[in-house]
Structure formats: C-alpha cells, structure tokens
Design goal:
With about 240 residues, the protein is mainly β. The protein has strands at about 10-15, 20-25, 25-30, 35, 40-50, 55-65, 70-75, 80, 85, 90-100, 110-115, 130-140, 150-160, 165-170, 175-185, 195-200, 205-210, 225-230, 235-240. The protein is built from no helices and 19 strands.
Length: about 240
C-alpha cells in the first residue's frame, strides 16, 4: 500500500437484523426463519436493488452460546441451496433452506444462514474502502413437542455507587430476543440508566450488561424497576438488588 492512489481494503460487517433487511443494495425477506417437523423447508428471497451484479456465498451454521457469547460452527443439519449465487442488477433469487435432521423432542434448536458478499476485484486506481457485508439470519426449529416459550429471569447487582450489573437467564425452551431495557428507582418516571440492544438469549443461556448510573442516584429500598422489550412480551417488574 505504498501508492496512496491505490488504497484498497475490505471491511466485513456482521449484521443481526430484527426486521426487513436492506444492506449493500440487497433486500432480504424474511429475515428470520422458523421451521418444524411439519414444515421442514422455507424460501428466502434476495433482491439486488443495485445497478451492479452481486455475488453471495451462503452457508449454514450451527448456533450455540457459551458464557453469553455466540458460537457459530459449520453444519450439515441445515441445507441451503444454492451455496453461491450471482444476482443480476434489479433481479431476485430464491434460496432454499431445509432441515436435514429431526427436531429436538422438547427444546428449540437454533441455526444461522450466513450470507457473505463476494466483492469483485478492485478497479485499477481504486481510492477508498470497498465494503463486503456478511449477514446472519436466525433459523429456529420448533421441537417435536410443539410450540415452546422462553422463561427469562433477571438479576441486578450493584458493583459500585455508579455501576450496576444486569443479568438475564433464559430458563425456558425457546429463544428470547431483547431489544432494549431501562432501570428506574421505585416511583421514578425517568430511567436512571438504559441500554439499546438487539440480543438473543438461547434456551439455558444468559447475557449480562454493565450499566453506568449517576453517583447521585439513591436506591433507598434496595429495589429497581426493570422495563424491557422482548419478542415475547414487555417486561415491567421490580427486582431486588443482589450482592455481586
């Protein structure tokens, strides 16, 4: 990269999208796939809204969580076809997603469909940054027992006068997606701290966040009101402060 007129690099962005996806000139529908023993396949439509052809590599990934971190590994339990597609400008292509194993008896299974943009070779004399996007779409497999639900339990600990730790544990049999949450003192109308997130918590797993508050905030009765928005419901409850 000695020549400043030929600076070229790739930026890889991973997106977990809660709604209709539009990225790098793509539109993707749907952005979350749900399969079951009765419905083992689904169609994913990618629209190229740009004026250039786009090539995309598509992979199936097993999705687990360890200590609050997402872990992805290649899997053959989910079939995606075709594995590579080139879509002409203003055209559409349909991707087939199918389950290749039996669902679990009682617990929801989770996978992701990874769509990796394959950018063309850089043009001679390119100046700037060429962006390659990777989008991960969640795929959930309903268990043989039928529809299941999450069961989120919340814990809040004071770590310092200006720091709280918020933890959630999913003890249910289905995922939960948390979009954002806020904490209030009892009777208060303004949050003492809040967090905008888009986090999935899989069955049997948990996540945590460190939250800053003003040192002037006093929680006299040792209880905090929690308000959280999830894809299951709206949580509005009081939580007793725990010791860390």
């Amino acid at each position: 990269m000695n020549n400043r007129n030929q600076i070229h690099c790739f930026v890889l962005a991973t997106l977990v999208l809660p709604g209709f996806a539009a990225a790098a000139g793509w539109n993707i529908d749907p952005v979350r796939i749900e399969l079951s023993n009765a419905e083992q396949a689904a169609a994913l439509t990618i629209t190229n809204d740009s004026d250039q052809p786009t090539s995309i590599q598509i992979r199936a990934l097993d999705w687990t969580q360890v200590n609050g971190k997402d872990v992805y590994t290649p899997t053959r339990e989910l079939l995606v076809l075709p594995p590579v597609v080139t879509i002409a400008p203003k055209a559409k292509h349909v991707i087939r997603v199918a389950l290749r194993r039996a669902p679990d008896g009682t617990r929801e299974l989770a996978y992701r469909v990874s769509l990796q943009e394959m950018p063309p070779p850089p043009s001679p004399g390119l100046v700037g940054v060429q962006v390659a996007l990777r989008i991960g779409l969640p795929v959930f497999i309903q268990p043989l027992s039928g529809p299941v639900v999450p069961n989120a339990t919340w814990k809040i600990s004071r770590l310092a006068p200006d720091k709280l730790k918020v933890e959630v544990r999913n003890q249910g049999q289905a995922h939960i997606q948390i979009s954002d949450f806020a904490l209030y003192v009892a009777g208060g109308e303004q949050p003492i701290t809040d967090e905008a997130v888009s986090s999935y918590v899989l069955p049997g797993q948990g996540r945590s966040w460190l939250m800053k508050t003003s040192p002037a905030v006093r929680i006299a009765d040792g209880r905090v009101r929690l308000k959280a928005y999830t894809d299951a419901d709206i949580v509005d409850t009081e939580v007793a402060l725990d010791k860390p």
